[in-house]
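ugh ok so i messed up the first submission bc i forgot one of the chains. this is the corrected input, ALL of the components this time, i swear. 934 residues overall. if the numbers dont match what u have on ur side tell me asap before i send this to the collaborators (the ones from the other lab, u know who)
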Amino acid sequence: MSMSEGKDKDKVKMVDLQSLLQETGVNEVLDELDRELVGLAPVKTRIREIASLLVVDKARAALGMEGTRPSLHMCFTGNPGTGKTTVAMRMATILHRLEYVRKGHLVTVTRDDLVGQYIGHTAPKTKEVLKRAMGGVLFIDEAYYLYRPENERDYGQEAIEILMQVMENQRDDLVVIFAGYKARMNTFFQSNPGLGSRVAHHIEFPDYTVDELEKIAETMAAELGLRFSATAREAFGEYLELRRQQPNFANARSVRNALDRARLRQARRLLEAGHVDADMLVTLEDADIRASRVFDESREQVNGGEAAC
Amino acid sequence: MKITQGTFSFLPDLTDDQIKKQIEYALEQGWAVSIEYTDDPHPRNTMWEMWGLPMFDLRDPAGAIGELKECRKLHGDCYIKINGFDSSRGFETMRMSFIAHRPATEAEYRLEREEGPGRTVHYKLQRVYA
Amino acid sequence: MAKTSTSAKEDAGQRTTGNTSKRYQAGVLKYKDMGYWVADYEPTATDIVCLFRITPQEGVDPEEAAAAVAGESSTATWTVVWTDRLTASENYRAKAFDVQPVPGTPGQYFAWIAYALDLFEEGSIANLTASLIGNVFSFKPLKAARLEDMYLPPAYIKTYKGPPTGIVVERERLDKYGRPLLGATVKPKLGLSGKNYGRVVYEALKGGLDFTKDDENINSQPFMHWRDRFLFCMEAVNKAQATSGEIKGHYLNITAGTMEEMYRRAEFARDLGSVIIMVDLIIGWTAIQSISEWARANDMILHMHRAGHGTYTRQKNHGISFRVIAKWLRLAGVDHLHAGTAVGKLEGDPMTVQGYYNVCRDDHLVRDLPRGVFFDMDWAGLRKVMPVASGGIHAGQMHQLLDLFGDDVVLQFGGGTIGHPMGIHAGATANRVALEAMVLARNEGRDILNEGPDILVAAAKTCRPLEAALATWKDVTFNYASTDTSDFVPSASVA
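and heres the new structure output, hopefully the right one now
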């Protein structure tokens, strides 16, 4: 039945898309995502778009039309600590609620889970992972490590071949999400155009702004039962400005590390103080932040290893 | 003559869709699904060949159906059965087992009799090859 | 709380109500005063606890009646005896510690009584029963008494070997999983000669049943000597195995007048290659345990027919509840036990019957009053007994049976197989197809209780024997009020 046939028919068979969406419970997941992750506006927009696409598909099915099951293999690019894994988990739930995947579980792997160490090892290894992931979402972190052209004896290519096959022929059974640094993912897809052409959605996860990082810090601190004093908050803002320009900045993860270090300093400070009250126990002071080496300009240097904290 | 082993042998051969639903049931119960095949369906042969290991972490039948199809390709002349294994206390055994593929010609057995003292007979099953 | 001055040992850890200070002076005392009523006694981890349903005579106080039961099933006699003082008597006294009126039945009471482990010989049901029920049921101050349920501690359970095979190993030996097993008793009950008996077995097994069965009164009569039955049946079993490729069995009844004869028959069954033998309950507890040991030593599945139990299990006010018999049989060691059908021709309310099935099959019993399970009880890893549903059931009830009892059960359709209009083979096929179709549907998630009849009709489309069976028996039900229902929920027999 097409839309152009008889207005009466259309009037009788109307589909309320909003309530259809409501029924699936997807809105709860989207709202939870909004609360859980600070910023990430373009990401959240894209997720809502995908949800809308699938709801429209459901409506088409409800009105008896042929469904066009879209390909939903995705690629998440961005620096570490920008929420890629969290979003992947929520994506799996959303796809399940919209009945795009049957079970909605998430299987997270890296190259080592897919690639074997000797001839004949890779295919069964990759197939095992795929079997486990079927009915849900397969999340491959730092996917570009699958491809090591410089090493002749590398078996990653075999895993790539198997992945491509499944992504093409078993779209009903599995959604694949690749993740990693943007530049390296681009190179990876250029070297493996077959794989790249099967990815329908490329979603960028931008670095957080300092404001957003501060908000994240507040939330994390609250979860730990702590709060920033006014001066501490100011100090932390300065800390973030300095730290994010240094190498190996991992966004939310780096905030978490900084907070942990601040707690240590607070503990030492409190112990020296001797007598403490409830307020002192929960408050991070300016000193707990400024003790970081990041503020010590004379020691600021680029070293490829662990950054100053 | 039909070898009527397995849970559903008296029904018409199961379609892949019916097989999928049975695997779904096994997964819901938390059982590990495995595939075995043999060309020797003697009733005392309880150890068929394993097609891969039991699939312990499966969430969806698709993976198992894929394996079944692979097994059929390679061992289409064998009997193939699908099992569900329950590792919980009080069981620790198979809870489901049914034939998912039969060879083009069914195996046949003939009863061999060896007469003993009195009127006793000792029996053996001998495979008959057409 | 008066403490006696006669024995310091007696006071240790025990509080009593009732006046025990004159305990050992000659004369007749109330049982309550002799220490058999201990109001807030907490059973220890090794105590056995019995739940009796007692109907005291008019004028007899329920606590006194309970104390009397405790006394008469342990150390008391009707008058004080000085020789009691040669013993650590408080250890051997059973302790009645709680009495509750039975809901809805005036004059009837539940009485809980605890027994110390020392009272019992290890691994002997004969001793257990002689102790608990040997004396007290004839006791005049009680109008009626029933042993309703028992709690057995792991310390006691571990003195038994339990079922020689158990559900798990039985299935592994038969290589059959995922569905109930099917059986049938050979009919007519009496009169067939060995060869013709074997024919019935062959047709039924070939048609699709897993087992056929001797009836309880088939032992060795003028019309058929046991050896001939065994010979012809094993021919039938082996022929059926060859045509089907499945393991088949016939429960050869080895019940006889003496143990020696029973062993002879069991050995012959083994030598002929049978996987299973059968005995009747009336052989007695000692014989049952002996045969159980033999079965284990000879890789034989042991089927128990509960012949005669109805004489003492059926009336609610007097006798022994079948759930206690089932517990004793699991300890003594049987692999199959007739436990009721709920929907067939023999007595059994559905909830109560499910309670019996739980006693047989659970690793850990959970207190469930509507099903008549009064105690949480762990079976300490004792193997599980396969319940058998036998008596007036037919293929048209398959959905009810599967829903009530699950997979681990033997469904026996005697008349329902042999009485099939198209013959025994067809009867067996009808049952097997009905069962497999129902299991398939249940696994697919269908509501078999409501859709059952439709599922059977659909399966009958490709199975004429099933079609004929449904047409012949579709209106057969056994709808009488059960005599033994739970006190805790109103329930009717299943239509």
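quick check: Confidence is low (pLDDT under 50) at residues 1-18, 491-495 of chain C. that seems consistent at least. The longest strand of chain C covers residues 142-151.
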